[in-house]
Fold these 2 entries.
Entry 1:
Amino acid sequence: MPGYELIGAEEQAEVDDIFNNGGVLFRHSFDAIRQDRWKVRDFERAFAKSLGVPHALAVTSGTAALRVALAVLDLQPGDEVITQSFTFVATVEAIIESGATPVCAEIDGTLNLDPRSLAKLITPRTRAVIAVHMLGTPADLFAIDKICRDNKVVLLEDAAWGCGGSLDQMPLGTWGRMGAFSFDFAKTMTTGEGGMIVFQDETDFKAAAAWHDHGHENNPTVPRWEDTRASSGFNFRMTEMQGAVGLAQLKKLSSVVAAQRKNRDSMWAAIKDLPGLTPREVPAGSYETADALVFSVEDGSTAKKCREALVAEGLSTKILPEAVTWHFAGTWTHMPELVARHGGDLGNQFQDSRKRLDKAVSLPVVVKMDETVPARLHKALKKVLVR
Ligand SMILES: Cc1ncc(COP(=O)(O)O)c(C=O)c1O
């Protein structure tokens, strides 16, 4: 969660570097006045290097990152894209905006895409799968990747929460053909609003770079106003100010994740012996970003009581149980494409996911944790769980 906790002198210095050297806030052109400052480009290169991938493209948000990645696949009406029932609405919004039909699968004990449910939903219309690493815990990419390969379906990753995490030593976002990241203000590293796509393949990168920039190919042999183009596009360009903040935040990412993991562990150590707590499952070989500490309790009413007790103690929960309607496809009756694909009544869908989410509790993890938090967590939860 806490890139925002560490916004400070380093971010300020990167932004000042723009304003003190020409003040160009646009990622292209203005070569005569920008004094060789290219913050977005530098941020993309540094991000790609840190993940060990050949290309990265900065965009305006995590939602835009998903939308641009889907644009590369040139989806047609009737094509289907499968994702998981527990995700932020943005994942499904991006599928709908791309003109494809969204399909949601059940989640497993990781609270991410259940490979068994995924396998049952694949049809000849399936073009892509978006695995989401909700709240920083990897999805079971071993099984999901195999299903995608066996069925010749594109794997994409929604790594909005996965920045800085890995599975089997491979950074989250680099398992799929493309990985999408969010740098909104609640994410592990932030540019206020912003996002990034990482690519394995240069052709995908070039198509995405053009599409996010009205089709501009940024042909170096002609001025931008005479630029070549091969496809239509849109505008999802990141500004230089966001790029500057991203450069500074990226340098802090590994220490942020390490601190979150340490704090998550001390929070769990304080409560793990309370009766009735079951930790979220984690695939073997995971390096979680530890954005949250997630566990399940006996039932939905106990989960709600846990939240009440935590709030009374001056603590909080994060998404589960209080914000599930923004994160569970079973409640998205405002999305006609999703409702129609799932038989017209979302209320009867995703029963396994509903049961898992109903009794789940998620605690926010921060970098600058007040040292009294673990003991206060114990005190609050004990009131509910020890009868
Ligand atoms: C799983 C997931 N995907 C996508 C997004 C969208 O990111 P952004 O807020 O940067 O548009 C979010 C944001 O919370 C998210 O949680």
Entry 2:
Amino acid sequence: MNYCSACGAAVSLQRISGDERERYVCDDCGKTHYQNPLVLVASYVCVGTQILWIRRGIAPAVGKWAMPGGFMENNETPEAAASRELMEETGIQVSVDDMTLVSVSSILNMAQTHLVFRCHLDQTPEFWRLKKRSNAAGLVSTTFRGMSSLFLGSSRSCDKFMVG
Ligand SMILES: [Zn+2]
């Protein structure tokens, strides 16, 4: 970060008393800017022995396969975020109560924490309805290991999911 979000002046890394880490402090108004991880949610949508994936239609990683998911919003539970992202990206509605947490992981160099949920569909979704916001969706067998085409965070948690 370069500038203070409160006053627009330059910030610099400083050590604050009682804090083990350096923090960005505004050179003008003195505001301390704490930087914390962003929380993302994603879902394994299981349909029989298959998992639903989306092929990303928007940056980053256009064309790569990923689990439906995205950033948590303020005033939203993780389950509600997972349910909302699934609806936004695929049009599939899954109740918050049917979202089960299966993994928590971090991508340290991106300062992201990923919460991954699992849910089940009783029947194959109607794919003609899935094309929303330029994402495409597809079902992939759980034995599918073409993971080089997977988007970053999806690849890591998928490996855990497959092993576990
Ligand atoms: Zn300032």
